[in-house]
Amino acid sequence: MLATIHKHHINGADMFGNFPAGMQDALFGMGCFWGVERIFWKLDGVHVTSVGYAGGTDDAPNYKSVCSGRTGHAEVVHVVFDPSKISYDALLKVFFENHDPTQGNRQGNDVGSQYRSVIYTYSDDQRDAALEAKERYEEAYGRTVTTEVAPAPKYHPAEDYHQQYLAKNPQGYCNHGPTGVSCPIPERVTA
Fold it and tell me: Is 67 designated active site?
């Protein structure tokens, strides 16, 4: 693990373990992870966030190797959330409405496979919800949604200076925000 500091810069929670009972994981790639993390850390019901790399072939990725495009990793945000306060469907809404999921291996000026749109899932329920959301948003965007949906691979936390980067560097680069496309959160019947 490249990260050596375990405490979240904003809320002080451990980013890599010791989560309260009942928390769930989510893993999203929406382009440059700095702005993505800030979007998620602000949500009520999110316990903690961290940034890192996932979905590639190198067992020890770092920022330089990932940016080279040789490792196949995406820049991702690991979200630990309380499902009694925020649903996975609500997280998917934030995901699809705060980046353009139709751009393939890029987000705006950020070009490369590390900036691809991806949802890595931790359960069949997450996979099903992600695929349903992808279908809804493809219709809403009116274009092919290129978001990859796959089982969560190994997550490699990024270097310390990337964690909560925009809290430490408020004027730092961020190209994320509302796209203007919106879909309602589906109503789920629970047994």
Answer: no
What is the topology classification, in CATH, of domain 24-168? Answer: Peptide Methionine Sulfoxide Reductase; Chain A (3.30.1060)
Provide the pLDDT for residue 152: 98
167 backbone dihedrals φ, ψ, rounded to 5°: -75, -35
Q: Flag whether pLDDT at 1 surpasses 80.
A: no
The neighbouring-strand residues paired with 118 are: 29, 148
The overall average pLDDT reported for the chain is 94
C-beta of residue 174 within 8 angstroms of C-beta of residue 37: no
> Which residues lie below 8 Å from residue 30, measured CB to CB, with a gap of 6+?
36, 77, 95, 98, 99, 101, 107, 117, 176
What is the rounded CA–CA span in Å between residue 66 and residue 40? 22
Average pLDDT of the segment spanning 127-135: 97
Active site residue: 32, 67, 174, 183, which one? 32
CA–CA gap between residue 140 and residue 183 (Å, rounded):
7
Asked if residue 143 has pLDDT above 90, the reply is yes
Dihedral-angle region of residue 127 (phi above 0 means left; psi in -120 to 50 means alpha; beta otherwise): alpha
In the chain, where the domains are located:
24-168
Burial category of 64 from C-beta neighbours within 10 Å (exposed 0-12, middle 13-18, buried 19 and up): exposed
Name the pTM for this structure. Answer: 0.95
Evaluate if residue 191 carries a pLDDT over 70. no
